[in-house]
Amino acid sequence: MVVVDLSRAGNLKRGEFRGNAREYFGIWIVNILLTIVTLGVYSAWAKVRRNRYFYGNSFIDGHSFDYHARGLQIFIGRACVVAYIIIYNIVLSVSPIAGGILALLMLFLLPWIVMRSLRFNARVTSYRNIRFNFTGKIWDAVVAIIFGGLVAALSLGLLAPFASRWLYRYIFNNLRYGDRAFVADLKIGALYRVWLPAFVILIAGVGIVIGFGTLIYAAAVRGAAAGLESNPQVQIILALYGMLIPIFSLFGVAAIFYRVGVRNVVMNATLFDGRHRLFSDLGRLRYCWIVISNLVVTVVTLSLMRPWAAVREHRYTIAHSGILVDGELDDVVSSIQQSGSAVTAEYLDLEGFDFGF
Fold first, then answer.
1. Where are the alpha helices (DSSP H) in 21-95?
2. How does pLDDT run across 67-92, given as a tens digit for each residue?
3. Which of 42, 107, 251, 303 has the fewest CB atoms found within 10 Å of its own CB?
4. What number of helices (H) and strands (E) belong to the chain?
5. Cβ neighbours of residue 121 closer than 8 Å, sequence gap 6 or more
6. Which residues does 28 contact at the CB level (< 8 Å), separation at least 6?
């Protein structure tokens, strides 16, 4: 990953999360109950309450972020997606060809949907009363999402760093804070350095699992040939499940390693206003342990510890993120406020819907 020289980072502003699991549990349990009672309708308003809590307790330099979306905006976006899915399934049952056309249409609409969602989520986010914005175009989204996804999939992951580079350059190079731009100068070599450990984990793990499954299958076949009392079909099925479950688990671990590595590379290679560098030093092993242990605790407690798990993961992520400020952050904010962009951004929460991407 990109190495940041902290010895010269005299003005590193690390993030801080001031929330706790007890407070969030109250929000979470009410969200769950109201979502169940309203057959899922309240989930849009639940997202607003959740994001306002996490944004409002995430601080940089003593100031928190704010989330300005309204539940109705999110509900309309989700309703559009659900309606499209319902129409697609109805049409597919009547005419497979027409259903295929609708599926293809969704593929073409996906870049526009993602672009609109990125714009919406940026515009409803603020820091010190200054809104973020996203200025990405549809064609750039097509390249970053459709072409990048195809390149990563068709190469069996070997070209995934190129796809990641296109995607995150599209996101960060079109991100604005007030009237100031972010610029991500991602090096493909740095992305491949964080890709390699994930690839090794996946390949080595899959090889071991397949070898173990092959031994079980061979033992079942030999047992059947020798006339031993056994059920080879059951043993073969168990061997297949015994292979698939560990393979999917290893894929998840490799994905976490890669995602965290890419995040560090992207953040540390991104400049704000041409001077101030974003910062991230998430530990891949530590973050992987947090995600896995959170999953185990959530399952064992029948989701009752989910608020604790969410706060734990968010606190670690925020604490290992920040910005290396060239000068003082107050000067940057004052300069943006004087430009007038902070005032003109007030209307932005009236525009758009959140499609959930």
1. 21-37, 43-56, 71-94
2. 999 999 899 888 888 898 899 899 98
3. 107
4. 13, 10
5. 69, 134, 354
6. 50, 306, 307, 310
**CA 140/CA 147 separation, integer angstroms:** 10
Q: Which residue has the higher pLDDT, 1 or 61?
A: 61
**CA neighbor of 149 nearest in space, from 123, 190, 111, 201:** 111
- C-alpha pair distances (Å), 271 with each of 181, 287, 308: 8, 25, 33
Q: What percent of the chain has pLDDT over 70?
A: 85
Quick check: 107 and 113 in contact, CB under 8 A? no
Residue 88 contacts residue 80 (beta carbons within 8 Å) = no
What are the backbone dihedrals phi and psi of residue 270, each rounded to the nearest 5 degrees, phi first? Answer: -110, 130
Res. 37: pLDDT tops 60: yes
Average pLDDT, the chain: 87
Cα–Cα distance for residue pair 56/67, rounded to 1 Å: 8
Mean pLDDT of 173-178: 96
The rounded Cα 198 to chain-centroid distance in angstroms is 17
- The Cα–Cα gap between 225 and 158 comes to 42
Contacts of 169 (CB under 8 A, 6+ apart): 144, 184, 186
Closest by CA position to 320, among listed 258, 271, 268: 268
Please give the Cα distance from 62 to 21 (Å, whole number). Answer: 21
In degrees, rounded to 5, the angle at the alpha carbon of residue 294 between the alpha carbons of residues 293 and 296 is: 65
What confidence category does residue 199 fall into, taking pLDDT thresholds of 50, 70 and 90? very high
The SS3 assignment for 206 reads helix
pTM score of the predicted model? 0.87
**How far apart are the C-alpha atoms of 54 and 48, rounded to whole Å?**
10
Q: What is the pLDDT of residues 227-262, one digit of tens each?
A: 555 566 666 676 677 677 778 888 889 999 999 999
CA 59/CA 14 separation, integer angstroms: 9
What pLDDT sits at residue 68? 93
Rounded CA separation 50/56 (Å): 10
User: Residue 63: left if φ>0, alpha if ψ -120 to 50, beta else—which one?
Assistant: beta
Nearest to 78 by CA among 109, 117, 111, 108: 117
